[in-house]
Pentapeptide repeat-containing protein
Amino acid sequence: MRDYQAVLSSHEISKKITDLLEDIDPIQYNGSNRARRVRNVNDYIQGRNDMPLEPLLDWAAKADGGAYAGKVAVLRQSIRDFQVQKALLTVPYTRTSHKQFEYETIELEMDRPMKVIDQQIYDRAAKAGFPRNFFQESYFDHVTLYCMPDNANCNFSHFSDCSFHVCRLYGVKFWDTRLYGCEFHSCRIEFTLFPDSTLANTHFRDCSIHSAAFLRSRMTRCNTVDCSVGRLNFNGARLDGCTYGRITRLPNSRIEGLEDASITMGGATQEEVRYNRNAIFHALGEQDPEHPPASRDRPPGPER
């Protein structure tokens, strides 16, 4: 079994490449189109366009007499590492271990102590195999997660400022789970459930999300960008200040429960809330039943 590893997300790599270009030639790359440039580089790394990135990196490596060659080499290695890790998204993580770790515990709720998982414990478990119930009733603090066993149980856990980077989540259960300030980058999320969970300032970017359910989930200021989606279920969900953009629908996709979800924006006017609701439906390729397309008046038929 190949080793999984923490890698930079394609978006982080894209920002570093853009930083380098702006450093080499601050006149041509003056930051005025920075957001578009980062997006174009990210799309190339993700295989969504054919931007000539390699010639650009060749030029950067030769600039100023080769002063930036070392930085370019590091960036190229980051891209290779990302592609290797991404190829593992189709491969289930199968390591198992009966070894239990010595955990500190924290009690955020009465009579429910949770195991404290830091990066060191997670890395050791990922290398040796995750013990039983490793992810359940656990407190993950500033951890980068890059592999999980299929059907992992994350019920009643807390994830604080965690990153899921190029991670396969298949059949994972986040029942009554808290995710605060988390990021999902380039993840493959399939048959994964978030029922009765709270997601705040938690974002999805460059992910494939298929057969995921956010039943009765409470989502606050969550952004989903550059993702491909299949079957999603929002029955009973509450979306407060959430946004969706550049979404691609997978074949045989279906969005359920969105029309019944509570879509709000704290402190916004009714018009702003209505606009955001329309934007979410449009981004997901759905027609808002509250705002059906205007019907065109038919011309009168000929008199008989």
The CA atoms of residues 97 and 131 lie 5 Å apart. The chain has two domains: 10-90, 105-283. The mean pLDDT is 93.
